[in-house]
Amino acid sequence: MLARHEITGPVEVFEGNKGFMDAIAGRFEIDWSREDLEKVTETSIKRYNAEFHSGPRWRPCWSSGPSTGSAADVDHVQVDVFDVAFNIIAGGEEGDKKVVRTKEQADHSLPYLVAVALLDGQVLPAQFAPQRIARADVHGTRPRRRRQGCADRDRPAASLR
Questions:
Q1: Residue 56 shares a structural domain with residue 15
Q2: Which label site among 6, 54, 59, 80 has the fewest CB atoms less than 10 Å from its CB?
């Protein structure tokens, strides 16, 4: 169905080594003549190149524009997040998020994302380049974390200070 509409892509994502079928679902066949693409309307698409839950947390830092000072000028930054976000990107159940050496670690590290947004005024592909991740300025601005409990995903659950 997708190919019929000239939408193509690598089959390896589904059928290849460690693709969706190999790693998750197992072999399956889809009769596209009986399927539609309406599930797409129920999905969320990330606007930025960072973990889904992080965007609402670092975008205010981005909108303030790039820093004209240094990390030493920042007294503290408080970021409130709900439990799921804390567990995935702020150092909860998914582990420490302060040590960032790769793009994969950076886009799942709220401390990195907030720091780079404040310093650079943006979180775009350039902020995930190896040379940007390695720069010392972003490592000195990462906030400490403090846990506060909250199960309600619409209320703050934790703070990064």
A1: no
A2: 6
